[in-house]
Please model this.
Amino acid sequence: MLNLKINKRSSYMAKTIQDKQTTQVVQVKGIHIGGPEFTVIAGPCSIESYGQFLETAQGVKKSGANLLRGGIWKLRTSSKTFQGLGDSSFDLIKRVCQETNMGLVSEITDARQIEEVYDLVACFQVGSRNMHNYSLLKELGRQNKPVLLKRGFAALIEEWIQAADYITGAGNNNVILCERGIRTFETATRNTLDLNAVAYAKKNTNLPVIVDPSHAVGIRALVPDLAYAAAAVGADGIIVEVHPRPAEALSDGPQALTLEDFELMMIKLKKILAAVERPLHK
Ligand code: PEP
Ligand code: MN
Model:
């Protein structure tokens, strides 16, 4: 007799949507992520110099960005490419954040960096490649500072939510989930933005959920469209890469918006946010 075993891991089973969660607000330097307003985090992929970071910060602030992004240590696929300025950038970062009065969201790639940048960053970022680094997540769970947790590019939604539990379970409830695109069979774009995951995580967790359209699509001209989709699907914000001169960027130039692109995107984004009754954070 044929013995048919049902493989529960590979067969789709409709999940019960809990839909009784209210999103908790995570405060990052006075910005309420997950509240009634929509948050925009913008800045370069990598912090390259005082001039580049200041020009970007001033430009994105003028167009309405609420928080800055910028990489200090870069986990690049190739070890031969730019790895970030590391600790030599600390002074310039302090100056730019003070001069613009903006909080910084920045990735730490190693638990030893938590202490090094504790006073420099308003929110720690865990990159896609480190979503499964449970010892790092547990250490971040012992900190009194928000954590933006990117989804692993090949992680199930459930694994991403469970990764967040490592942080909250260790005592730090200030976690923001970030969908940044997953690897699929498609090669026309860098990754595939999983809007399902945004809707699912919003309904099944009480954590704020934001979208990174830059790493999701990897193509400058398409980044704004995905940012609009994020706003329409109910994300609590976006984190987007901007560079004053993308052709000179030391990392991720092809997906960086220029300051002008960013300004135009913000104008249309505000209209979409108005339509979904979700104003941009002031
Ligand atoms: C980044 O935001 O700079 C980054 C490296 O993104 P990800 O971890 O999503 O690849
Ligand atoms: Mn990048």
User: Anything to note?
Assistant: Residues 259-275 form the longest helix (17 residues). The first strand starts at residue 26 and ends at 28. The radius of gyration is 18 Å.
